[in-house]
Structures are given as structure tokens and as C-alpha cells.
């Protein structure tokens, strides 16, 4: 892998807590900071196109993401995305050919101690370097086919259909 293109859409991975508002809002993308702190041995670029909770991502947003990914010269693409509609977005990205696209996110904000963000990002980085062209989801220590996985909201994890 010469370089990795990272496209961010928001989601829990980038959420920050506002004490004065007593709620969470999607903040700046965290993945660039995480990869720099980990000292990765590859070049990467970060393209922030959305800053939304995935429950608010619509068809126009998915088309913008698909077009953005298709327009990148890099073959290896990692997308950070909220977990609630990640599967729907991955299915839309199936139409992009000749790229290895891996979507990942977090069930807890990256800024929180004990967040699954770094683990999921690490899994996604390994996957994007080793899989054949296609679209995949990297969550809970596994690589999933978007057509064979769902988020189990009650258990707060991804599982096979």
C-alpha cells in the first residue's frame, strides 16, 4: 500500500461531550490524530466530507461519499462512519470498482478511555492492505461482508445475518 485515503463522515468515533449542553456532538475527525500517535509506517490523507451521526446520513450524503471515493486516485480507502447506518452505506459503495474500501467506526467515542476506536481502526488498516477489491466492514475484531451482517443494537455489536 503506497498510501491510504481516509474519508470521514462523523459518527460516534468523532463525538465529543459538551458539559454545558449535556449532550454529544460530532467533532473533528479523530483518525488522523490516532494514526499519527501510533506512528504508522504509511502515508495517509484525510478527507472530511460529513460530520453527522449516521442516523442522519441520507441518500444524497451516500451519493456524495460514493462519488468522493470513486474520484480518489488511491486504491486503498478507509471510511470512518457511524455504526447505525454503516451497512446501508457500504451497500451503496459496492458500485465503486477497483478499490478496496473498508468502513469502520466505534461504539464509544475515540476520546473516551476504553473506546473500541483504535482497535477498529487497526483492524480496518490491516484489512484494507490485505483484502481483494471490494467493500468491507471492520467492527468487533472481524471483517464483514456488508450483505451478510447487521448491527445488533441491543447487544451493541455487529453479527452475521
Portion of residues in helices? Answer: 25-40%
Number of helices: 4
- Total number of β-strand segments? 10
The H/E string reads: EEEHEHEHEHEEEE
The H-level CATH homologous superfamily, spelled out, is: L-asparaginase, N-terminal domain
Q: How many strands, which pairing sense, and closed or not: the largest β-sheet?
A: 6 strands, mixed
Q: Report the principal-axis shape.
A: globular
Structural class, please? alpha/beta
Specify Rg, calculated over alpha carbons.
Answer: 14 Å
Overall pLDDT score = 94
Tell me the CATH architecture. Answer: 3-Layer(aba) Sandwich
Distance between the termini: 31 Å
Assembly category: single chain
CATH topology name: Rossmann fold
Task: Give the low-pLDDT segments.
Answer: none
% residues in beta strands = 25-35%
* CATH domain class name: Alpha Beta
Strands in their spatial order, largest beta sheet: 4-1-5-6-7-8
Domain L-asparaginase N-terminal: 4-152
Protein name: Asparaginase domain-containing protein
InterPro entries: Asp/glu_Ase-like_sf (IPR036152), Asparaginase/glutaminase-like (IPR006034), L-asparaginase_N (IPR027474), L-asparaginase_N_sf (IPR037152)
EC number: 3.5.1.1
Structure at a glance:
By secondary structure, this protein is of the alpha/beta class. The chain is 27% helix and 33% strand.
Question: Your description of this structure?
Answer:
By secondary structure, the chain is α/β, with parallel strands linked by helices. The protein has a single domain, classed as L-asparaginase, N-terminal domain (Rossmann fold, 3-Layer(aba) Sandwich), CATH 3.40.50. The chain is about 25% helix and about 35% strand. It contains four helices and ten strands; from the N terminus they run E-E-E-H-E-H-E-H-E-H-E-E-E-E. The protein has helices at about 30-40, 60-70, 85-95, 115-130, and strands spanning about 5-10, 15-20, 25, 45-50, 75-80, 100-105, 135-140, 140-145, 150, 155-160. The chain has a six-stranded mixed β-sheet with strand order 4-1-5-6-7-8, with helices on both faces. It has a two-stranded antiparallel ribbon with strand order 2-3. It is globular. The mean pLDDT is about 95. One of its GO terms (molecular function) is asparaginase activity. Pfam families: Asparaginase.
Amino acid at each position: 500500500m503506497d498510501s491510504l485515503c481516509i474519508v470521514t463522515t462523523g459518527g460516534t468515533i468523532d463525538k465529543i461531550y459538551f458539559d454545558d449542553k449535556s449532550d454529544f456532538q460530532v467533532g473533528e475527525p479523530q483518525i488522523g490524530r490516532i494514526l499519527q500517535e501510533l506512528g504508522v509506517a504509511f502515508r495517509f490523507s484525510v478527507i472530511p466530507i460529513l460530520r453527522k451521526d449516521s442516523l442522519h446520513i441520507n441518500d444524497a450524503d451516500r451519493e456524495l461519499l460514493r462519488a468522493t471515493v470513486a474520484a480518489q486516485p488511491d486504491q486503498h480507502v478507509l471510511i470512518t462512519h457511524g455504526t447505525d447506518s454503516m451497512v446501508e452505506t457500504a451497500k451503496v459503495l459496492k458500485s465503486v470498482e477497483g478499490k478496496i474500501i473498508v468502513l469502520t467506526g466505534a461504539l464509544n467515542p475515540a476520546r473516551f478511555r476504553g473506546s473500541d476506536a483504535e482497535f477498529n481502526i487497526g483492524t480496518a488498516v490491516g484489512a484494507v492492505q490485505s483484502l481483494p477489491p471490494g467493500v468491507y466492514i471492520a467492527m468487533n475484531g472481524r471483517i464483514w461482508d456488508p450483505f451478510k451482517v447487521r448491527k445488533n443494537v441491543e447487544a451493541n455489536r455487529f453479527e452475521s445475518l
